[in-house]
């Protein structure tokens, strides 16, 4: 690991602790004290540094109070399980019966609660489990750096220690799809099937056009961590309530803790050419590596909702090439298994289809469960 990467991980590890703001606030206070003791000419500078220290300290104290209120208002709805010195949150419901248990993983580095709408529908028909990656949701920060390979192992460990029994059908959206494919590759004995919801293909990062949003993502997440650390909460003081039943609102409040931004900043470094070069061998799932595991690739027929990607491409011919690339590169996941099958989402849906058509997604997952256990497969 390069020195710059080690330094970045050390900084993120510090910032992931909600008390870090108070420690950082002491630095200008100490510098101010040195200025004051060195003579009259530096007393103004020293006073300014003390003022900065006071502002940072008050902001940090505000953050700690806010975090305490949120922790009291939103306790973990599931179980906290130890995975080796830090805890992960696992929320489960429903009866598996003779069929495999379904485990959901959202995109980005969001907590499992981001897929609560799907979980609420699924648990009426099957055993359904949400897991928070370390740093996300209610889970502890975990060690740095964050990597997909490490989180695949952590996911399977958390399921085992929560008492969940395999085999599992793993369902992942976007970046979560890459994680679930990685988990399936590592422990095929625990996996009965895989459902990839418009998954992130490593080839798109390694060989695709430069995407400014992805390039900025680690820096943006680090900036958000600093804002939160010193009490600049976008949701605070704007009529918030601590009794909301909206899962998206609950997760947004829970993830005002800096650990969520720091974990995301760390793992999103994988989604860059340098990151894929560094971690790709452990992250990617190659052709044939899943054997004959039942695999469903579920994604839109076109690139609805991808305007942000293509608006930056002015040349029409180049734009057409970019569109073709993104439409075809995700199909590579099908080659990972001899039993891969393509399913198109309803017309007009885009990358966010799990939120827009949850009934469709649960129906697709249910059809795979029927193939893995007793019963006749249902039509889509």
Radius of gyration from the CA trace? Answer: 23 Å
Helix proportion: 40-55%
Count of helical stretches: 15
Largest beta-sheet details: 8 strands, mixed
- Strand content range: 5-15%
End-to-end gap? 46 Å
Number of strands: 8
N-to-C SSE series?
A: HHHEEEHEHEHEHHHHHEHHEHH
Tell me, rounded to a whole number, the average pLDDT: 89
The strands making up the biggest β-sheet line up spatially as 1-2-4-3-5-6-7-8
Q: Structural class, please?
A: alpha/beta
Query: What gross morphology would you assign?
Result: globular
Poorly predicted runs are: 375-380
Oligomer: single chain
Task: Walk me through the structure.
With 380 residues, the chain is an alpha/beta fold. It has 15 helices and 8 strands. It has helices at residues 3-15, 20-37, 43-73, 116-122, 148-161, 175-186, 202-207, 212-229, 247-254, 258-267, 273-283, 307-310, 316-329, 353-356, 358-372, and strands at 79-82, 87-93, 101-105, 128-131, 168-173, 191-197, 295-299, 340-344. An 8-stranded mixed sheet has the order 1-2-4-3-5-6-7-8, with helices on both faces. Helix 5 (148-161) packs across helix 6 and helix 8 packs antiparallel against helix 10 (258-267). It is globular, with a radius of gyration of 23 Å.
Q: How do you describe this structure in short?
A:
With 380 residues, the chain is an alpha/beta fold.
SSE layout:
Elements: H1 3-15, H2 20-37, H3 43-73, E1 79-82, E2 87-93, E3 101-105, H4 116-122, E4 128-131, H5 148-161, E5 168-173, H6 175-186, E6 191-197, H7 202-207, H8 212-229, H9 247-254, H10 258-267, H11 273-283, E7 295-299, H12 307-310, H13 316-329, E8 340-344, H14 353-356, H15 358-372
Helix pairs in contact: 1-10, 2-3, 4-15, 5-6, 8-10
């Amino acid at each position: 690991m390069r020195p710059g990467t080690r330094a970045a991980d050390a900084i993120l590890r510090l910032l992931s602790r909600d008390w870090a703001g108070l420690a950082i606030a002491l630095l200008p206070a100490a510098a101010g004290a040195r200025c004051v003791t060195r003579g009259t000419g530096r007393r103004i500078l020293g006073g300014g540094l003390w003022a900065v220290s006071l502002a940072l300290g008050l902001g940090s104290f505000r953050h700690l109070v806010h975090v305490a209120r949120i922790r009291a208002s939103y306790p973990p709805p599931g179980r906290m399980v130890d995975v080796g010195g830090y805890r992960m949150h696992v929320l489960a419901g429903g009866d598996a019966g003779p069929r495999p248990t379904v485990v959901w993983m959202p995109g980005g580095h969001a907590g499992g609660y981001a897929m609560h709408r799907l979980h609420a529908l699924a648990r009426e028909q099957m055993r359904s489990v949400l897991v928070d990656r370390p740093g996300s949701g209610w889970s502890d920060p975990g060690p740095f750096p964050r990597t997909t390979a490490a989180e695949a192992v952590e996911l399977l460990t958390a399921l085992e220690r929560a008492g969940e029994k395999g085999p599992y059908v793993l369902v992942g959206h976007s970046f979560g799809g890459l994680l679930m494919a990685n988990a399936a590759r590592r422990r095929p004995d625990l996996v009965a099937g895989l459902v990839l919801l418009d998954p992130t293909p490593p080839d798109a990062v390694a060989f695709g056009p430069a995407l400014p949003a992805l390039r900025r993502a680690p820096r943006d997440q680090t900036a958000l961590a600093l804002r939160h650390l010193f009490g600049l909460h976008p949701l605070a003081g704007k009529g918030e309530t601590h009794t909301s039943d909206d899962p998206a609102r609950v997760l947004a409040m829970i993830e005002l803790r800096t650990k969520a931004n720091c974990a995301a900043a760390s793992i999103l470094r994988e989604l860059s050419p340098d990151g894929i070069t560094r971690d790709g061998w452990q992250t990617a799932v190659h052709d044939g590596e899943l054997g004959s595991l039942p695999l469903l690739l579920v994604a839109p027929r076109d690139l609805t909702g991808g305007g942000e990607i293509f608006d930056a491409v002015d040349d029409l011919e180049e734009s057409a090439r970019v569109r073709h690339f993104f439409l075809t590169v995700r199909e590579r996941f099908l080659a990972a298994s001899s039993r891969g099958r393509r399913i198109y989402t309803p017309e007009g849906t885009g990358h966010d289809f799990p939120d827009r058509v949850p009934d469709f997604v649960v129906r697709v997952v249910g059809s795979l469960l029927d193939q893995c256990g007793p019963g006749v497969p249902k039509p889509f």
